[in-house]
Amino acid sequence: MNSMAFNMYNSATEEQVENRRRTQQVLKRFGRRRASLIPILQAVQGDLGYLPREAMLEVAGFLSIPDIDVYGVVTFYNQFRLNPPGKHSIRVCLGTACHMKGGYITLDAWKRRLCIEPGETTPDREFDLDTVACVGCCTMAPVTVVDEKPQGSVEPTKVDGILLAFEFEREKEAKGSE
Ligand code: FES
């Protein structure tokens, strides 16, 4: 092990070590062919929920390709996530109907309330935010898909209501576990 790798290993968090271990497990199912890069990344993301740096390094090492090539593929395809998924997913529809009915204003409201940008996860990993194209409920525009369920007429005030409902749920859970 070279000194750089040694330092990285020493300073790795438990989560990073675990991510490496799980990535190595996934890699056992694949051959060391560059053509396997995308299926490998899909499988690693399927297991970890996202593609952290340490997983990308494992994949690069396994295929003997430069780290930057793996990173390039991950950032090129929007099926890949660089951030861990939140407990709750928020997807703001920006299809034509939703756009016409203020989808971007709704997106701004989510961004402000959660203090994150699309593609990011809140530091407490409670929510992740992203945008989607039409989800087929245009008559309910503007739509936000919350935990896979499309919700209609999500204006900024409704954003507050949805977040409040999650807060109540969290408090109820916390009381239940006391
Ligand atoms: S455009 Fe948003 S649901 Fe169709």
General description of the model:
- There is one protein chain.
- Helix content is 53%, strand content 10%.
- It is built from eight helices and four strands.
- It has helices at residues 3-11, 14-27, 37-48, 53-63, 67-76, 96-100, 103-114, 156-176, and strands at residues 88-93, 127-132, 144-146, 149-151.
- Strand 3 (144-146) and strand 4 form a beta hairpin.
- The chain is globular and about 50 Å long.
- Mean pLDDT is 92; it is low at 1-8.
- FE2/S2 (inorganic) cluster binds at residues 93, 95-98, 134-138, 141, 143.
Features:
binds FE2/S2 (inorganic) cluster, 4 strands, disordered N terminus, single chain, alpha+beta, globular, 178 residues
What's the helix and strand layout?
Blueprint lengths: L2 H9 L2 H14 L9 H12 L4 H11 L3 H10 L11 E6 L2 H5 L2 H12 L12 E6 L11 E3 L2 E3 L4 H21 L2
Parallel strand pairs: 1-2
Antiparallel strand pairs: 1-3, 3-4
The structure holds FE2/S2 (inorganic) cluster.
Share of residues in strands: 5-15%
Along the chain, the helix and strand elements come as HHHHHEHHEEEH
Helix content: 40-55%
Taken from the alpha-carbon principal axes, the silhouette is globular
Main β-sheet description: 4 strands, mixed
Low-confidence stretches: 1-8
Helix segment count? 8
> Which cofactors or ions or other ligands sit in this model?
FE2/S2 (inorganic) cluster
Radius of gyration: 19 Å
Task: Count all strands and give the number.
Answer: 4
Mean pLDDT: 92
Task: For the record, give the distance between the C-alpha atoms at the N and C termini, rounded to a whole number.
Answer: 47 Å
Oligomer: single chain
Structural class assignment = alpha+beta
Strands side by side in the biggest sheet: 2-1-3-4
